[in-house]
Design a protein that fits this description.
The structure holds two protein chains of two kinds. Chain A is 28% helix and 26% strand. Chain A is α/β, with parallel strands linked by helices. Chain A has a seven-stranded parallel sheet, with helices on both faces. A five-stranded parallel sheet of chain A has the order 14-13-15-16-17. The longest helix of chain B has 18 residues. Chain B has a single domain, classed as HUPs (Rossmann fold, 3-Layer(aba) Sandwich), CATH 3.40.50.620. By secondary structure, chain B is α/β, with parallel strands linked by helices. Chain B has six helices and 15 strands. In chain B, the strands form three sheets. Chain B has a nine-stranded mixed sheet with strand order 11-10-9-12-8-1-6-7-13, sandwiched between helices. Chain B has a two-stranded antiparallel ribbon with strand order 2-5. Chain B has a two-stranded antiparallel sheet with strand order 3-4. Chain B is globular. The interface between A and B is large, with 95 and 82 residues. The complex binds flavin-adenine dinucleotide.
Chain lengths: 323, 246
């Protein structure tokens, strides 16, 4: 089967989650005897596009006439490419903000079944099933897609990127996408070189146990020392100690980093829902009965105000010893 | 302004999830259902605020059988004017979106709001599919919505920030945290909800494009390994040598 991957870019560079999606797409293509193409848009550096060949793409089609984000138009862009590849194409998105906007529209446009937030490769023996987390990470389901074209959005951090050699052929396209009815006025990024929570491999998170926003310095320092992003529990963002975009859990964002360090967070079921996909969980809490310890791999029973500074110097010593 | 809010029922957030029929069905025995938090806290409350400021009406719509009625009454108690229930068993996002689009296509809504995802299937597909089927502009994961006349200004969550986007009605959006604050229904609202109109609409003929073939629970977690509070070096050592995380 042919595979079409939608790749997003930022500031001329292909985003990290797209490397995962292309790796995924080219593996699916080779296991089903097809090839993997990519469709993208905007002002992306050409060498970035050629380099998608490193992840297994044979061809990249780019529509440079689309500059502003509009899911209606991008869904048509993907739709036109998918239809050109044929009626048994598999279309792959990354389940990031872009994919969450475009994939449902593209799927409806193509009248194709969509599995949103897949965490593994599809099973194509006698059907087409894909695994995803449901009930906010408390269970998994295998969804089967019954249409000729299948659409999958891949949850970031679910598979490892595989990089080899190869150069993709780049083609400029500009199909008719209709006029945009959205007007993008401004893009505000949080600035700095901070690591994005949704892409982070390591996360340091803290909750109400920290007592006040003025105590987050040590959390930020620990995160910086580890190269981690920071996150928080819901009450902490509700009372404004931390920004909304750091709120993880069932009603915040769901993350699946390799390492999640939770400091002064009780581990309520709604919080766990957003982080239980983490590969390793460390909990630091004064209360040995805190429910979070049941979901943890490693724990320290102790006061954050004593443990975190000690941990910070242990991390520094560890890094110094490695150098 | 005529506003439609898409509401889904979802198991209460503390539900112990289990499955029946050889792990092919969600076990809803004894499960408390609530209005999906994103639909209620953000989409519905913001719709009500806009109606309070600018006039108009707020209708809620759900696709499902009569077991949804208590959840619909709850949303009415919070302040919606009326409700529509499309009498179809929801089993796939496209099938649900198609039902909604078929109903909404000649109702002239200015605004169709949904939550960013449901907390049971976490798909986040329905609002975008509705927009596609109705050929309306779509803004997903909106965390702020202001209206001025027929023009909406929104903030949409993006990787590492927000995008400010403007669109004229009619359009569809999916709501994320930040758009409004949760409202607790009061006694008067609960009383009033009993007599608000709930229109039941027959299902349109459409098939789903996906189905669940099986469920599974995550493997049980091994016992936590406790490290002495005075010896965080041991934790670093474990993370480095055992977990290989740092
Ligand atoms: C519908 C619904 C949705 C929800 N969604 C979310 C969600 O998405 N995300 C979320 O996080 N929550 C969510 N919640 C809230 C959730 O139920 C908990 O209330 C919340 O997670 C608790 O936050 P916390 O752990 O920071 O605070 P607390 O529960 O107050 O816990 C603080 C913890 O810190 C520990 N502590 C205190 N002092 C120290 C110290 N000096 N050092 C170390 N530890 C210390 C305490 O022992 C305690 O375990 C939701 C709730 C509902 C009803």
């Amino acid at each position: 089967m042919s595979v079409l991957v939608f790749a997003d870019s930022n500031d001329g560079k292909v985003v990290k989650s797209a490397f995962e999606a292309v790796t995924y797409g080219s593996k699916v293509a080779s296991s089903t005897g097809g090839h993997c193409e990519v469709v993208t848009y905007g002002n992306v550096d050409n060498d970035q596009l050629t380099a998608l060949g490193n992840y297994g793409a044979t061809k990249v089609s780019v529509d440079r006439s689309v500059s502003d984000f509009d899911p209606n138009r991008l869904a048509r862009l993907v739709g036109s490419q998918a239809e050109a590849l044929g009626s048994d194409t598999i279309v792959i998105f990354s389940h990031d903000y872009t994919g969450k906007s475009v994939a449902p529209m593209a799927a409806a446009h193509l009248k194709a079944g969509l599995v949103a937030g897949a965490i593994d490769y599809p099973n194509t023996d006698g059907g087409f099933t894909v695994k995803k987390a449901v009930f906010s990470g408390e269970a998994f389901a295998r969804f089967s897609i019954t249409t000729g074209i299948e659409v999958i959005s891949l949850l970031p951090n679910s598979i490892s990127v595989e990089k080899g050699d190869g150069a993709a052929e780049v083609a400029e396209i500009s199909p008719d996408l209709g006029d945009s009815r959205l007007r993008v006025k401004e893009v505000r990024t949080k600035g700095g070189d901070g690591i994005l929570l949704t892409e982070a491999e390591l996360v340091v998170s803290a909750g109400r146990g920290l007592k006040g926003p003025e105590n987050w310095g040590m959390i930020e320092e620990l995160a910086q020392e580890l190269g981690a992003a920071t996150a928080c529990s819901r009450p902490v963002s509700d009372i404004g100690w931390r920004p909304h975009h750091e709120h993880v859990g069932q009603t915040g964002i769901a993350i699946r980093p390799n390492l999640y360090i939770a400091v002064g967070i009780s581990g309520a079921i709604q919080h766990l829902a957003g982080v239980n996909g983490s590969k390793t969980i460390v909990v630091i809490n004064t209360d040995p009965e805190a429910p979070f310890f049941k979901a943890a791999d490693y724990g320290i029973v102790g006061d954050a105000f004593e443990v975190v500074p000690k941990l910070l110097s242990a991390v520094r010593n560890h890094k110094a010893a490695l150098n | 302004m005529k506003i439609l809010v898409l509401i889904s029922k979802a198991p209460d957030t503390t539900t112990k999830i289990s499955f029946t029929d050889g792990d092919t069905k969600f076990n809803d025995q004894g499960v408390q259902f609530v209005v999906n938090p994103y639909d209620e806290w953000y989409a519905l409350v913001r719709a009500l605020e806009l109606k309070e400021a600018n006039g108009g009406s707020v209708t809620i719509l759900t696709v499902g059988d009569a077991t949804n009625d208590p959840v619909i009454r709850k949303a009415l108690a919070i302040g919606a004017d009326g409700a529509v229930r499309i009498d179809a068993q929801p089993d796939d996002a496209y099938q649900v979106a198609y039902q909604i689009a078929e109903y909404a296509k000649d109702q002239n809504y200015d605004l169709i709001l949904g939550g960013k995802e449901t907390i049971d299937y976490n798909g986040g597909q329905v609002p975008g599919m509705v927009a596609s089927l109705l050929n309306l502009p779509f803004v997903s994961n909106a965390s702020k919505l202001d209206m001025s006349g027929n023009t909406a200004t929104m903030e949409r969550d993006i990787q590492g920030g927000v995008e400010l986007v403007e669109v004229d009605t009619p359009f569809v959006l999916s709501a994320a945290k930040g758009m409004a604050e949760q409202r607790i229904p009061n006694m008067r609202g609960i009383m009033a909800a009993r007599s608000k109109p709930l229109q039941v609409v027959p299902a349109a003929a459409v098939d789903g494009l996906t189905s669940v073939s099986s469920y599974e629970l995550p493997p049980a977690k091994a016992e936590v390994r406790i490290v002495d509070a005075d010896n965080p070096e041991e934790l670093i050592d474990l993370l480095h040598n055992e977990a290989k995380m740092i």
